[in-house]
Amino acid sequence: MTGTTAADARPRTVPDDRTTVVLITYNRRDELLRTLTLLRRLPERPPVIVTDNGSTDGTAEAVARDFPEMTLLRPGRNLGAIGRNLAVQRVRTPYVAFCDDDTWWAPGSLARAADLLDTRPRLAAVTARIIVEPDGTEDPVVRELRESPLSGPDWLPGPALGSFLAAATVLRTDAFRAGGGFHPGLWLGGEEELLACDLLRQGWWLAYAEDLTVHHHASVLRDSTARRVLGLRNTLWFTWLRRPLLPALRRTGHLARTVPRDIASVRAFAHAAAGLPWVLRHRDPVPPDLEYRLAALERARRNSPARRYVG
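Above: the chain's sequence. Below: its structure in token form.
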């Protein structure tokens, strides 16, 4: 059961000053320019902040030339997800919408997300339905979001979530800051899980909202093996940082048994092991009620086609 209000149903086709769009990019100039063009056309006319993570393909120069109304940050090196933290420091709106350089928000979705957050003060984030382009099909992860095993209060606009997708989520700016943003130790790759867990621990709620839409046209400029190494490493680090001892050991054992038997998995486990000193220094297991929810999510994800890279 979900709650609705008159504000929820209110259509918006005019500029909306409640949400800033933040995205990071690295050496994907043409794809980024396409995404910025689509964001510029949104009826909400949101402010847009781009963090260029040290691109060498002329990305920053093209953005400055073609999109002078947008804020461009140039830290001079690849900060990974921390580039989003840098951008959120500049946000002056109550909500921040993340997307990637190969994803973009559908017209009206940002205003709808702001309406949902306006009327639910303990809701930290809403995650959108993801449509894969050019085929127009749903991303496999959508089924996982829609069928989340977690329960939540009746006022949530959709299923309660245990994490979110940075490429398709609108967050309450104050909640993002209170949660500490994305952890610099994780850099990139599943970095949302740790922040989401810490938000839940603070009493915030996360939800999926079926009527929000993000489009994703996957970039061809990606190293899928490197992404899998980082994703698996960060899954292990999150497990060791926040799960109690026995669940952490069980999760680690399950991953060791089920991930592909290849050099990428070996590298991921090796990198994770090398980070054990800092992980143990920062380890802070969640209380039993939150562990119960994390365990339910773990069980549900084992059969998710969107999670094959981690078993």
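The chain has a mean pLDDT of 93.
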